[in-house]
C-alpha cells in the first residue's frame, strides 16, 4: 500500500507491506507492529521503541492525532488519490471547500484571517490552545473565508465549526 503524507510542510512517501510487517518511509525501511487497545489507543512498535497514538480524527485527507501527547495534523493521500493527481485530476477533497472543525477541545488564541480573505490549502487560519499547547489550525482547501463562527478567547468543543471556506469564483 502506497501513501503520501504531509506533516508540517514535510512530504513523506510511505509504503506499507502488511504481509511482512514492514514499512518504508522515504528511504528508511523498518519493521512495525500495531497494537489496538480497547480505549481507542494504538501502540506503534518499531524496533525497541513504542509510540502511543491517541485522539485520531479522519476527515477526507486530513488526519489529526497525538503521538506520546504531541498533537499533529497530516494530509494523507492513498494510492488512488496519488494516481489521480499523477494523471492530472485533482481529488475531490482538494477541490472542496467547506467547514473547518475543531480537532479537539480548546481555546481560540488568535484568528489569522478575516471573512473575504483568499486562502490556500495548508495556510494557517487559527491558533487553538489545547492541552497547554498552541496548535496551528490550517486550511484543508483553497477558497475564500466565508463566515467565522468563533472569536478570540472562545472555548470550543471537538468538531465544533470554527469557520467556513467557500469556493473561489
DSSP, total strands:
17
Which consecutive residue ranges, at least 5 long each, have pLDDT under 50? 91-96
Major sheet strand order:
4-3-2-1-9-8-7-6-5
Instruction: State the distance separating the first and last CA atoms.
Output: 37 Å
Strand content is: over 45%
- What count of structural domains? 2
Computed over alpha carbons, the radius of gyration is 17 Å
Q: Roughly how much helix do the residues carry, as a percent range? A: under 10%
Shape: globular
Number of helices, where a helix is a run of at least 4 consecutive DSSP H or I residues: 2
Order of helices and strands: EEEEEEEEEHHEEEEEEEE
Structural class: mainly beta
CATH topology of the largest domain: Glycoprotein, Type 4 Pilin
The level-1 CATH class of the largest domain: Alpha Beta
Describe the sheet with the most strands. Answer: 9 strands, antiparallel
The mean pLDDT is 87
CATH architectural group of the largest domain: 2-Layer Sandwich
